[in-house]
Design goal:
- This protein is of the alpha+beta class.
- Among the domains are: 108-264, Methylamine Dehydrogenase, Chain H; 306-415, no CATH class.
- Helices cover 23% and strands 36% of the residues.
- Helix 1 runs parallel beside helix 4 (47-56) and helix 4 (47-56) packs across helix 6.
- The chain is globular and about 75 Å long.
- The two termini are 47 Å apart.
- WD repeats lie at residues 102-143, 144-183, 184-223, 278-303.
- Pfam families: F-box-like, WD40.
Length: 417
């Protein structure tokens, strides 16, 4: 090599060390380094490098990785997952998105019972029918017909939907084909609660029982005699069942016995997420309040407000996106708010640090307090003008908002992908 010719001082490094160096760079720098020479371009395609980046930033494993593993491949599209998320983050920070409005004007949609997985949304229409919508196009995809009375509750996971009804049955649906796979009969009163976990579902009925079902076979596995009412709450993690009414009870389905019971002071209808680990119980309500309880003593031992701040900022930003920012008070600190939003990323789950509990799914949270007092004034003004957001679902690439404009409810999807 002639004197003065530029040299790559890292060309003699083993790949393992070169990749270690790359791991300290952010994504933009890695992509720039990849343009310098063939070797760095090849190193910048390393899936292990991007897998580490994704895990460090809390990016979920792409479904293509699972499929490639099933085929015996050791690699997956982690780089695509990271760069896609980078694009979404940039669009979120700069306010670039596509708005999709579901045309529900003639569908008789009940927005009290609805949910979404980010790709599809399900709502109840005409009391006893389930309508599946595309969160990508906003168009209805298919209708699930079978219940003979009002549907009270639904849960969705992948292509499976479970619903409970006034007709005293629980139905298991294939969302892709629209087929009713099983009608689970056995309850003698209305079924206002279902909780889906793996291939099992717990159903709570006003007949005073909780039943555990195998949704693949349709067989009832356990029956618990519990004090269940229309406004009760149930949770099932595959091992334990929790029922909440005036008291919280933890049940062992195998022995059909109540293990612990204590009074609970949280509004039951506001609960959005539950997690039980040993003697610690995590409860999340629809305003973003997180509480941790000691199930041995029945005492609340911790209250976490981080999620409240996140939901407040996201809901305020969603309102600004939909209704505009002309109504923001003069005292509102736009620069401070923007700095906070730049550090907030759209995620389908909210990570909890130093709690021992897993991430919280961001489903069905109601309007936040406005992030600060001036933001709260803006939201109060929207309420006065009858223009506001009821609930939001936060997905990896979307905000799904239930809006109300002069008593006319609409579902809007803000797509940042």
């Amino acid at each position: 090599m002639e004197a003065g010719e530029p040299q790559d001082c890292t060309s003699w490094l083993p790949d393992e060390l070169a990749l270690r160096i790359l791991s300290y760079l952010d994504a933009k720098d890695i992509l720039q380094v990849a343009q310098t020479c063939q070797r760095w371009r090849e190193l910048a395609e390393d899936e292990g490098l991007w897998q580490g980046k994704c895990k460090a930033d809390g990016i979920e494993e792409p479904p293509q990785v699972t499929r490639s593993r099933a085929k015996g491949s050791g690699s997956g599209p982690w780089k695509s997952a990271y760069t896609n998320q980078l694009r979404v983050d940039t669009n979120w920070h700069r306010g670039r998105f596509r708005t999709i409005t579901l045309d529900t004007s003639e569908s008789g949609t009940d927005f009290i019972t609805w949910t979404s997985d980010g790709k599809e949304m399900i709502c109840v229409v005409d009391d006893n029918t389930i309508q599946i919508w595309s969160a990508v196009t906003g168009k209805p995809i298919r209708t699930l017909v079978g219940h003979t009375d009002k549907i009270l509750t639904m849960q969705m996971r992948d292509h499976m939907i479970v619903s409970g009804s006034w007709d005293c049955t629980v139905k298991v649906w294939n969302a892709e084909s629209g087929e009713c796979i099983h009608t689970l009969g056995g309850h003698t009163h209305v079924v206002p609660q279902v909780y889906l976990h793996g291939n099992r579902v717990a159903s709570g009925s006003c007949d005073g029982s909780i039943r555990i079902w195998d949704i693949e076979t349709g067989r009832c596995l356990h029956v618990l005699m519990a004090d269940i009412s229309y406004h009760s709450y149930i949770y099932y993690d595959g091992r334990w069942v929790i029922s909440m009414n005036e008291n919280l009870k933890i049940w062992d389905p195998e022995t059909q016995s109540s293990l612990r019971s204590f009074p609970i002071t949280i509004p039951i209808t506001a609960i959005r997420h539950t997690e039980l680990k040993g003697s610690r119980l995590l409860l999340v309500t629809d305003d973003g309040t997180i509480t941790v309880w000691d199930t041995d003593t029945g005492r609340r031992i911790q209250t976490i407000t981080d999620l409240q701040t996140y939901i407040s900022a996201v809901s305020l930003r969603a309102n600004i996106f939909i209704w505009g920012d002309k109504g923001l008070p003069a005292g509102f600190d736009r620069k401070r708010f923007q700095r906070y939003v730049e550090n907030v990323r759209l995620r389908s789950h909210f990570d909890l640090s130093n709690t021992g509990f897993g991430p919280v799914p961001l489903w069905g949270f109601r309007l936040g307090t406005g992030w600060d007092e001036d933001g709260h004034r803006y939201l109060r003004d929207l309420l006065t003008r009858e223009k506001y957001i009821h609930f939001i679902i936060v997905c990896r690439t979307k905000l799904i908002c239930l809006t109300d404009e002069r008593s006319n409810e609409r579902m809007k999807v803000l797509d940042f992908n």
